[in-house]
Amino acid sequence: MIIELGHFALILALGVAIVQSVVPVMGAARNNHAWMAVARPAALAQFVLVAGAMAALTYAYVTSDFTVINVIENSHTDKPLLYKVTGVWGNHEGSMLLWVFILAICSAAVALFSSNLPRALRARVLAVQGMISVGFLLFILFTSNPFLRIFDPPQNGHGLNPVLQDPGLAFHPPFLYLGYVGFSVSFAFAVAALIEGRVDAAWARWVRPWALASWCALTIGIALGSWWAYYTLGWGGWWFWDPVENASFMPWLVGTALIHSAIVVEKRDTLKSWTILLAILTFSLSLVGTFLVRSGVLTSVHAFAVDPARGTFILLLLLVAIGGSLSLYAVRAPALQSGGVFAPISREGALVLNNILLTSAAATVFLGTLYPLFLDAVGGPKITVGPPYFDKTFGPIMVPVMIAMAGGPMLAWKRGDLLGAAQRLWAAFAIALIVTLGCLYATYGGPVLAVLGLGLAAFTAMGALIEWTDRLKLFRIPLRDSLRRAVNLPRSAYGMMFAHLGLAISAAGIAASAFSVERIEVVKLGGTLEIGGYTMHLSKVDQIPGPNYVAEDATIDIMRNGALVWIAHPQRRFFTVQQQTTSLTAIRSSLLADLYVAIGESDGQGGWTIRAYYKPLISWTWLGALIMAGGGIVSLSDRRWRVGAASRSRAAAAAQPAA
Amino acid sequence: MSRILASLALLAALALPALAVEPNERLADPVLEGRARTLSKGLRCMVCQNESIDESGADLARDVRVKLRERLTAGDTDEAAVRFIVDRYGKFVLLNPPIEPATYVLWFSPVVILGVATGGILAAIRRRKAAATPPPPLDAAEQARLAALMQESDS
Question: Which of A468, B1, B47, B70 is most buried (most C-beta within 10 Å)?
Answer without folding.
Answer: A468
